[in-house]
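User: Please fill in residues for this 146-position structure.
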């Protein structure tokens, strides 16, 4: 049943899969030995946490988000964990977009970072809706899948 539901939900959750993978990869890039946060582009994020903290959190939350998407609603808490992942990515993409805007208004990075921000904002809304449906199913004694 899980595989059947996965095929049904993958298309609508594809942006979330993409941003989760991008977050995990971004975290691995940040964890490389060469310092990145010395650049003005990363100043908004550096004010919140250090480079290793951003790298590890991004990698771990990205992988967690991918695992939660793979579980695909078989457990009623998955929408909640999807919301956590989306919220963290919204902060990440927003901080990077703000950094790009503060360094160079004409940077092409602004376009893709803003797109990632919007995709995760929409995904957060979808995950919240899935959470409401999961809570209803749990109250009604129905299956969690979906």
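Assistant: Residues filled in for all 146 positions:
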């Amino acid at each position: 049943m899980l595989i059947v539901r996965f095929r049904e939900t993958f298309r609508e959750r594809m942006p979330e899969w993409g941003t989760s993978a991008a977050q995990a990869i971004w975290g691995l890039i940040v964890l490389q030995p060469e310092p990145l946060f010395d650049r003005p582009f990363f100043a908004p994020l550096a004010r919140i946490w250090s480079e290793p903290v951003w790298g590890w959190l991004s990698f771990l939350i990205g992988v967690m988000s991918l695992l939660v998407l793979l579980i695909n609603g078989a457990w009623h808490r998955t929408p909640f964990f999807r919301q956590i992942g989306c919220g963290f990515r919204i902060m990440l993409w927003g901080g990077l977009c703000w950094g790009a805007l503060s360094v160079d208004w004409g940077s092409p990075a602004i376009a893709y970072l803003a797109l990632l921000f919007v995709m995760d904002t929409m995904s957060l809304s979808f995950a919240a809706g899935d959470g409401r449906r999961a809570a209803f199913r749990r109250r009604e004694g129905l299956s969690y899948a979906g």
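For context: The chain has a mean pLDDT of 89.
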